[in-house]
## 1
Amino acid sequence: MSPFPRYDRVVSLVMIVVLGLAVILWIDINPNILRARLGGDLPPVTVSWVLIAALVVIASAGTDLLVRSHPQMQARTLPTLHLPFASLEVVPGFWILPSFSIIGSFAFFRLFSPGLPGAAFVLALIAAGGLLLTVLVAQHYTLDRHADVSQRARLVLQIITYLLAFACFSAVYATGFRTLYGAALIGAAGTFLAYELLRWTPGRGLIRLALIIGLVMGEVLWPLNYWPAPFLLGGTLLLIIFYMISSMLVHYLAGTFQRRLLIEYGVLSSGLLAVVIYATFR
């Protein structure tokens, strides 16, 4: 029988992240928050994002410990991080979703934080904590010996990946950054999240394929910046394009791509695109 997750460690990590997010969101609504101006037309970096980066490091380290403690990882050869004082085995592929659970939650909910009443603020934190909890538990079960269990866990992670893609794309679209900066952020998010989807498929060159998807997403933002649409609709359209490209590539690498799938994706994407355009002009 496969081991259960260490819920004591999982819940402790989630609580640390939720408390950290609560403090950071509270700091972020301060109009006099400390900002670092990088010069030129570069967007300023607030102290909130520095704290988010620290929270991501904490979550990644905690996730690494949780994953490496799984019995199935004991027999695997893992990447080694060579430090001046020690050599550590790490599992960087498992850092992506926990990290983006924090980044995406903060970037998305901060768009509403100035007007969020107390109850909505608490619900936003519960949603962020529930998302991270689901990611950590699902990642544990992707290592299960039973194929049906691991496949269901991977399906859950795929759904969460698309939710996080929507959150990140919407947040970047809402900033109104110049295309150069917005495309870089969209491309980076698209690359990491695409790799999360591709890394469970057989084949080589997955990093290169993920970079291509990220590049395509960055280029898509260029015409969208001339489209006067609410950020939720802009994020939805970016998600549709990301979903269509990544899903077809996943099926192709898995050897399950068929002409029927191409037709289904085309009809689905066209229908969703039509709904988005109609909502925009309404």
Note: The radius of gyration is 20 Å.
## 2
Amino acid sequence: MVTAAKGRLVIVRVMLRARALLVGAVLTAGALAVSAWSPVPAAPVPAASPAAESAGRGRLLQFTLPYLRARPADPNAVSLARHAGPGAPLLLFLPATGAVPADYTAFLRTASDAGYSVLGLDYFNRGKSLTRTCGPDADCYDKFQRNRFDGSSPSRFSRVDAADSILTRLRAALDYLAQHDRRGGWERYRDGAGIRWSRVVVAGHSQGGGEAAFISHYRRVRGVLMFAAPVETFDDVSAGWMERPGRTPAARMYGLASVGDMYYDRIAPTWTTLGMGRVDSADATRVPRGSRTLLSTLALGTPRQAHGRIVGDRTPRVRDSSPRLEPTWEWMLRQVR
């Protein structure tokens, strides 16, 4: 009887924790669920409502992950998703340092319209950026990015635990979506306890783009899209992991940056180190296409603004309010579709 009482107490506490995390979040799917493998005990999984089941079409589904501890240091912003039809690859998008998925709704909708299931995932991208942390330390990049990806290799550069890692959040997000957007077919991107990386295009902006490249180095993914990224070359020093052969062919990697970007001189050599080909600013055009190393001359503001506006929602618009760089985004998405 005592054991049963304790078991009920654990469930009540977990349910109260999930309810507390629900407050203030913008949700379209109703009550939250935790998959059975997650690092805290799972609350009972409620059935998804009809609204939740259809939410993947026509608008971005918004949700938070209830298992994350309510510590101030834990990023727990709203993630965004939308499913596509049978056979669609998954676009996993990782925001820049300090940014959240809601800063990239235009790109996520463009990817969805291009036939992708999309997932803009919040992750531990707070604090100092990768480039400001590592500078000319080649080994730092590997430790920092590996720790953010799966929680391993904690160091003085980054100490994210496994529960806060991109990999855990990705698994939990797919489990959540499989429960609350049941017509979305999100289980097609899982392989037991793992991820079907061959069905995933990893994409990201700045730190997120560098993390996308890192993931593709150790997992054979469908493709990689990097925006103002990676910033992982400092003078003649490159991130140590890039000096070794990766699992994803360089032919499946595409990058977009502004020639006015504050980090342009560090992005271009990184692309070359990754094997993406020659990078020459003379090849830049306003709305580039036709290359794996795409350079834009579009006026994006100051060098700092140019770094952020290459894919964020503050990117310049045309008269019908669509992003000026949308044709470039669409072209990139088609290459790995």
Note: The longest strand covers residues 200-205.
## 3
Amino acid sequence: MKNRFPVTRTTHPKEKPQDENNLGFAKVFTDHMFVMDYDEGQGWHDGRVVPYEPLQIDPASCVLHYAQMMFEGMKAYRRPDGVLQIFRPDMNIKRMARTAERMCIPELPGDILIDGIEAVLREDADWMPKAPGTSMYIRPFIFADEVSFSALWANHYRFIILLAPTGAYYGSFTGKLSASRIYVQDKYIRAARGGTGFAKVGGNYGGAMRAARDAAEYHCKDVLWLDAAEHKYVEEIGTSNAFFRINDEVYTASLDSGTILPGITRDSVIRLLKSWNIPVHEGKLEFAKVLEAAKDGSLQEIFASGTAAVISPIGSLTFEGVDYQVADGEAGPLATKLYTNLYGMQTGTVEDTMGWTYPFDIVVK
């Protein structure tokens, strides 16, 4: 049985974006949001859809001082028949549970996540963009708003879902993947064993911004992170999981270390590659071997995977002031095939043979 939530409609609707071909990534938010509270002893309660508005939060709330929070990233897509659907929400539910446990945040039941998304999406369905390459970005997040300076887990939390009509993560949608230039970071680290690398928490991203600024100074889109212990093995690319195609085999970092975010797109990529009988190795890959492969021509492709961009091809690596081109510097055939299949499933233009899509009873003509 679905959860039913009360709705308070806005009395001041916003102007919707006029140019859907230049939405950018999550720059404009819809008229409503979903909100729910948690109190120790009462659990999650009072879910509701309300107008999107600034939050009232006490300046002594512990999230502002000790960063006890978590978030997820999802998208809703419009199929050719107008039905709205999301992609592999069961994986988001599992990842939220792992993050909540790591951050001492009470677990949110999966049905509340799905029903909350549906409730606010239904109210703001007329915000759903229709231009090619667009979608509705969904940002569920939980934060501790208890007033306390004690460095302990809180007893009160808020859960919120925001919606944002969005375009391509990197620039405008052209129907063709473009390759990015990536800076190899060997000074700062993203995550260490025993830390929060596997969890979806704000601190992981805030701590990465210094490295991202270094990358920008070299005119690079993002950062290739190396491992924290030895700065020897490749880990992630920016906020995405990294894949390397060498001699027709694909390599990606293992989740075993706890430093890698278990991406939903990452898992989808691995499962598709295996279904296509392409060898996939999850484990340690030395960056030195990547450079060697780039030099001898056996490095065929590098690409990143994530909810925001789906598949992001990498055209070159910048390391110690030297550029190393990946193959011909363009999007490779495997990255393109993966993008075509994943984005096609998500938007309903490619048959979902994996059972990954989750349609709602919401139609946008």
Note: The radius of gyration is 21 Å.
## 4
Amino acid sequence: MKKTLRKLWIAAAIVLLPILIFAIVCVCRINFRVRDYSYDPALPQPGPGVDFKYDDVFADLYIRWCNLLDNSLTAAWKAPEGVVKKELRVAAQDGYVIGGYILEPAGCESETLPTMLYCHGGAFFLTMMNAQLDAGAVYADELHCRVVLPQYRTSLDAPYPIPLNDCYDTLKYIASSPLTDLSHVMIYGDSAGGCLAAEVTHRCCDEGLLTPAAQMLIYPVTDRAQHYPSLTEYENATWPREANIRMWKLYLSGYEPTGADYAVPMEHESFPFYPLTYVEAAEMDTLCDQDIAYAGKMKEAGVDVTLVQIPGAYHGFDGDVNNEAVRRVIDSRIVWFRDALEQAE
């Protein structure tokens, strides 16, 4: 009996010890300084965040675990009343099948509608999360539009240009659909998805695929340069400075952008045929200053840009669409989109 118990303890130790070590490593990488800043108390307050600055096997395992979990959660996510969730399947230019979701108003499955390409955030290496489906459902309902969210390949295994190509191939899918109102196509992205959205717009304008009615960039990643003051002022906020550096390293993976490609929005010299553009910066965000600079560069180039800075907001502040303060911000985005769609008529 004692020998049997001993064998069981040994077996349990063999199984549990690696899990314990992995858990300890992950806990040691939690960014407890996230709450060092005076965020708007009306917003949901961020909990301790994970600093993704590390470049080792534990970091990669943690990212893959997060992606497996989020893929399970988004698959199980149920659309709210009035919205229908459908599977997205798009053939990429290299033969890969891009997954994702389509959200549309109930009863409109066969109608031609305005359509939004939603490029989700997640530092290029994280997959779609339920918060992005929540936001997409609000847009689908309030704007009476179809929202297409591609699950593009992520940078841990598929660095630039693959995530960008997947999003652009999804826009081609939208453009070819008889259910798309081509005069009312919107391009939207948050965080790293904002970078992808900006570059999809730029490529779309260069290649003449279609004429977008509007693009909206929410606390977008716009520049690989690390000289902006907000990167230091809010270096331990919800998107830390060091994590930002590693994000670009993973995404570019040795590729050196030239400014003539579609990797770094801030490095473009011209913005021809650009649609109405909305850029939203969160005040207490490492990316705040680069967002303001990018909006300014587009405006100087003649783009009609609306720049909005949300006081006391942090990167990812809008994750809870049921929070009153968050909903006011989302409602203001919806008003802007409605005005842009009216101007496109």
Note: The domain at 81-343 is CATH 3.40.50.1820 (Rossmann fold).
